[in-house]
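Write out the 3D structure for:
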Amino acid sequence: MYKHLLIATDGSELADKGVTHGLTLAKGLGAAVTFVTVSEPFPIFALGGAMAGYAAGDELVAYKEEAGRYAKEVLAKRKASANAVGVSAEVVHVEDKRPAEAILELSQALGCDLIVMASHGRRGLGKLLLGSQTAEVLSYTEIPVLVVR
């Protein structure tokens, strides 16, 4: 049925439920998994004033370094979880994209036949909305999506 699952994670507790569910499904089906985490673009408009362009350079470097460190940590844990249950898994960190856009593009590029994701993310105001990134993936994907609450 499903041969390659794309499991989206932001490292949150809710996303971990999606990871667990996706790994259980992948193990049962003998499917491969690709974990993806996405670092959103630097919020350039958060810096105001005449010197914003100068300050943004240092802030941008710090933001990218922290995002890369965090993504590496999140993906290493998920890869270890997959190895522990005997599921073949790859990891991908997508930088400077909105999560829904990255998930949709990657699922197509890798030929995934199922996307697994949590119903809500942990990012910014989006966590207050009813899963805005999840809703966008559901609206635009051409493959099935398993949404875990």
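The first strand starts at residue 4 and ends at 8.
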